[in-house]
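for the recovery benchmark. tokens below, seq after
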């Protein structure tokens, strides 16, 4: 799978220049690039059936790569000062601080909740930095209907950029298939993604 765009949605303070971000960025990039389909392939090929492919197996493949190759913790329970908005898909501990990553698998409302969860963690100083992975508009038509995607979320970026914090970091990774092929089996919806690696 390939990354077609990286956007720094929130970049306050010096985290972007840190060694921690260099390491985290490379781990996220590598985990995404390790996602292949069908199993055993060298790249990520998707069947171009309209809304015919599941999303969670793709996400799960990245999560497995982050955990097994780079030591990330999955489904991390986070304690906020207020009621918790739920677990975070993956976290990496950095000298006592946490970096959090969410991979969007739901609809656009779910995408908003994912960003809000990450931004709230920055506001509460629970996270040192955060990242969100979203499909591109080119990948979107082949995934489960109404899956949130970068172009659909982008009009709201100014809302999150205006958050009043002195320190905070939120990167967005936009992902896409390498190629399409009608002969490739559709990715099963709602199944375990470990076989994708």
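predicted aa per position
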């Amino acid at each position: 799978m390939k990354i077609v765009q990286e956007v720094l949605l929130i970049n306050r303070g010096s985290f972007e220049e840190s060694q921690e971000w260099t390491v985290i960025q490379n781990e996220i990039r590598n985990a995404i690039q390790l996602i292949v389909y069908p199993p055993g392939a060298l790249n990520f090929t998707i069947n171009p059936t309209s809304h015919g492919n599941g999303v969670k197996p793709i996400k799960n493949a990245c999560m497995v790569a982050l955990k097994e190759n780079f030591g990330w913790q999955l489904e991390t329970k986070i304690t906020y000062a207020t009621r918790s908005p739920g677990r975070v898909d993956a976290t990496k501990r950095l000298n006592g601080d946490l970096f959090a990553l969410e991979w969007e698998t739901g609809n656009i409302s779910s995408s908003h909740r994912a960003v809000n969860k990450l931004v709230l963690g920055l506001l509460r100083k629970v996270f040192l930095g955060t990242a969100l992975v979203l499909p591109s508009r080119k990948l979107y038509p082949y995934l489960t209907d109404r899956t949130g995607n970068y172009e659909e979320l982008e009009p709201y970026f100014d809302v999150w950029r205006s958050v009043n914090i002195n320190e905070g970091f939120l990167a967005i990774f936009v992902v896409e298939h390498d190629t399409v092929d009608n002969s490739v089996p559709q990715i099963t919806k709602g199944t375990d993604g470990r076989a994708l690696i």
